[in-house]
Design a protein that fits this description.
The complex is a heterodimer of chains A (about 160) and B (about 140).
Chain A (H helix, E strand, L loop, with lengths): L7 H10 L2 E7 L5 E11 L5 E7 L6 H8 L1 E8 L4 E13 L3 H18 L8 H5 L5 E14 L9 E3 L6
Antiparallel strand pairs in A: 1-2, 1-4, 2-3, 3-6, 4-5, 5-6, 6-7
Chain B lengths: L9 H4 L5 E6 L5 E6 L2 E5 L2 E6 L3 H9 L2 E8 L4 E13 L3 H16 L10 E14 L8
Antiparallel strand pairs in B: 1-2, 1-5, 3-4, 4-7, 5-6, 6-7
Chain lengths: ~160, ~140
């Protein structure tokens, strides 16, 4: 799987609108595992994504990535349900930096604003706590991007286009 | 010991918040998708709605293991279910009940006419675990 460049429309989605994400890995026996993700950043070359995996969802993460390198990240904008899935190969993991935590704070603000109409009387801290404390940054090369917005096109591979393979 | 679903999970299954499902293809590629419903069948089984997620449907037929995370904003907790696909039901009481719930969810989320139940996939529960939210992270 070769790394691909994320198109501008999806970059804008990631940086301005998306507010929820979840990652998937698998072990050597192909048993899948999930990891809540609190934030994400796009690398300068447009083909590396970094996911900030929640501290309480790190079980088996690094072990599985070092075993087979398979990583999938689904990013959604709630409540529109616009959703994309990024599949690729693990590059490395690292501790969180201050700029990563600033990204998580912005996404937490975005999520809280989007949820407020549905939870009118919920305390602010209750909604903010739904975006969990991140524990590690996972960098991966994006090899494929799929549309996952509910509807007839869900599951369509967007990048690379199907005719190229 | 055979894992059973505790009663405490029921509110999280019924709260209408989309769940997350992770599967893995036969050739080892994980797939993450949002699902609108996890239906309590009995204390050892759940049913998942089969609507659009064709890759998920293909994956669990190649490799029946699945991971589901159900969240509850008010309770500040997440339930992790490790599952194994058993069969699909396209009629009967479980299908009918899920179909009604799907329509209600679709109507409440502006997705009427898009959410359509094609089948109720029945899964056996391998394990269940609750992860509590530790609270809001603060910048360093």
């Amino acid at each position: 799987m070769q790394a691909v460049v994320i198109p501008g429309k999806i970059v804008r989605f990631l940086e301005q609108y998306a507010n929820l994400a979840f990652a998937g890995t698998r072990d050597r026996d192909r048993v899948p595992c999930g990891h809540r993700v609190s934030g994400w950043r796009l690398g300068p070359d447009g083909s590396v994504l970094t996911a900030f995996v929640a501290e309480s969802f790190m079980a088996s993460l690094v072990e599985d990535l070092e075993d087979n390198g398979q990583f999938a990240l689904t990013v959604e904008e709630f409540p529109s349900h616009e959703t994309y899935q990024f599949k690729g190969r693990y590059r490395r993991h690292r501790p969180l930096q201050d700029e990563d935590l600033a990204v998580v704070d912005r996404i937490r603000d975005r999520f809280t604003r989007s949820m407020r109409p549905l939870y009118v009387h919920a305390p602010e801290e209750l909604l903010r706590a739904f975006i969990l404390k991140p524990g590690v940054a996972v960098e991966f090369d994006v090899g494929e991007i799929y549309l996952q917005t509910p509807g007839p096109g869900a599951g369509t591979r967007l990048v690379p286009p199907p005719e190229r393979r | 010991m055979i894992p059973t679903l505790p009663d405490a999970i029921r509110p999280a299954l019924d709260n209408g918040i989309p769940a997350i499902m992770v599967t893995c293809s036969g050739d080892g590629i994980p797939n993450v998708t949002v699902i609108s419903q996890v239906y309590y069948v009995d204390d050892r089984h759940v049913a998942l709605s089969f609507q659009f997620f064709n890759k998920t449907i293909r994956n669990v037929r190649e490799n029946p293991r699945a991971y589901v995370c159900v969240s509850d904003i008010v309770d500040q907790g997440h339930w992790i279910l490790r599952l194994e696909f058993q069969r699909t039901e396209t009629e009967g009481p479980i299908f009918d009940a899920m179909d009604m719930q799907i329509e209600a969810i679709a109507s409440a989320t502006g997705m009427s006419g898009i959410f359509k139940l094609r089948g109720a996939d029945i899964y056996r529960v391998h394990s269940v675990e609750r992860v509590a939210s530790p609270g809001v992270a603060v910048s360093r």
